[in-house]
Amino acid sequence: MDLDVLLAADKAHTWHPFTQMKAWCAPEHEPLMLVEGEGAVLRDQHGREYLDGNSSIWTNVHGHRHPRIDAAIRAQLDRVAHVSFLGSTNAPAAELAARLCGLFPTNTLTRAFFSDDGSTAIEAALKMAVQYWQLDGRPERNRFVAFDRAYHGDTAGASSVGGIAGFHGRFAGLHFPVERIGGLEDLARLERPETIAAVIIEPLIQGAAGMRVWPTGMLRELSAWCDVHGIFLVLDEVMTGFGRTGTMFACEQERVFPDFLCLAKGLTGGYLPLAATLTTERVFRKFLGEVAELKTFYYGHSYTGSALGCAAALANLAIFEEERTLEALKPKIAHLHTRLDELAAHPRVREVRRCGFIAGIEVGPDKASAYPWDELRGGQICTAARAHGLLTRPVLDTIVLMPPLCVSTAQIDRAVEAIRRAIDEVCG
Ligand SMILES: Cc1ncc(COP(=O)(O)O)c(C=O)c1O
Question: Ligand 1 centre from 233 Cα, in Å?
């Protein structure tokens, strides 16, 4: 199919996520079609190049077409692409489970339950928590505590613990029971903590909230509160995992090892849909018994433990060691932060929030006020930034900058400059 036919087919037959399709399908809108990638750069249908400023929706880690991951997927294809994880196992999945658990201190997270996406990793954690308490003879522990502005995905359970009204409010009547809190100060007002199954949080930084950073020490305190009340802690590292915050996992920075830890996005280096819900031996053991005891975790997806995805994930982990990715990242984080400090002085930049290699740049008419949300300034800035070689997306008026970890300092400079020029153009 030639390009025009393909774009017409897209407009006639696809439905894009988080997208107002009226604007997308308008005759004057030419969809961006990404056709190639290499390292931190993507190329569109006209051969124009962009820095992948949001790591292809927070997934890509070591760059596009990394030879190590490409080769691992090809080698697995020569054996088998997919086999059921229900009633059989496969070599990459077994090895990956061991390697993932090996990234955490002994006797913390020892079991990996595979699924497909961030949402399903969360869904599995929530259901495991509820079933654990049922099997423990405490079925009344069946509600969750989650944070305002949290985002944990869009399946029904994951959206129950989300706190972004525009995304989750519509389905509120269909959700799991959840108490929403703004911060630690609200924990004290929670009634009947003995009926709470688990608390869930995006550690160190909330992503879809607009890159909002939690105070230092908050995670540690939350974990201690959970311990006092015997409540499970679920950490959603779907965005923060795999180096984004400067350490392999965000939880390491506060030495918190939870009851459940959810991984997806960067797990395969951003190549294939694969997720893992890690948990402890204590949780795992509770589900053991005779079939007739009905303790089994009756939950799963067709592509659970996908051999191709697990092969990609093993290569992703190997690159961290072989290329000493986290060491190489340190000076890049320092460089990014220096550039962001300069950008923070811009009169239309209200606030720059950052955590390791994740940044959110919020614009406003001045330092103290916001643009009306429906002016969509953030979206306009991201569109303008394309002309300067940067591809990224906003969260309302916050521009996300979160490139693959392989990005160079020169590319960081160009990305920040693209944002500055786009802000000038859109906000004056
Ligand atoms: C923190 C967090 N959790 C969960 C999800 C959901 O992941 P997925 O889109 O793969 O279902 C996201 C997606 O952006 C996320 O940022």
Answer: 18
